[in-house]
Each structure stands twice: as structure tokens, then as C-alpha cells.
Description:
By secondary structure, the protein is mostly helical. It has helices spanning 4-18, 23-64. The longest helix has 42 residues, at 23-64.
Amino acid sequence: MQSPVAVAAFRRIVDFRLRRDDEGQDLLEYGLLIGLIALFAIGAVTTVGNTINSVFWEAIAAANY
Length: 65
């Protein structure tokens, strides 16, 4: 039979090792959110840039005729 002191010590060790730390989860969520915002921003800037580029080239082509 195990001693109560040894069992209590073992339980403390197991509880300490199996305890979940949620601090890293917040950081991961913020990282994913920033990545999603960055993808959206890149898409928006690309679309606006292509539109502006086509408008300027149309204006240049119209000025040459």
C-alpha cells in the first residue's frame, strides 16, 4: 500500500503537468486574426491597384488619340 504522502505528491506532480495553460491560446488567436486581416488587405489593395492602373492607362490612351 502506498503512503498517503507519496500519493499526494504524485497527484500534485500529475496535476501540475496536465494543467492547461491558456495564455498561448490568446496569442495564437490574435496571430490568426492578424493573418486574416492581412489577407483581406492584400486582396483589397490589389483590386484597387488594378482598377487605378486600368483607369490611368485608359486616360493615357484617350489622350494620345
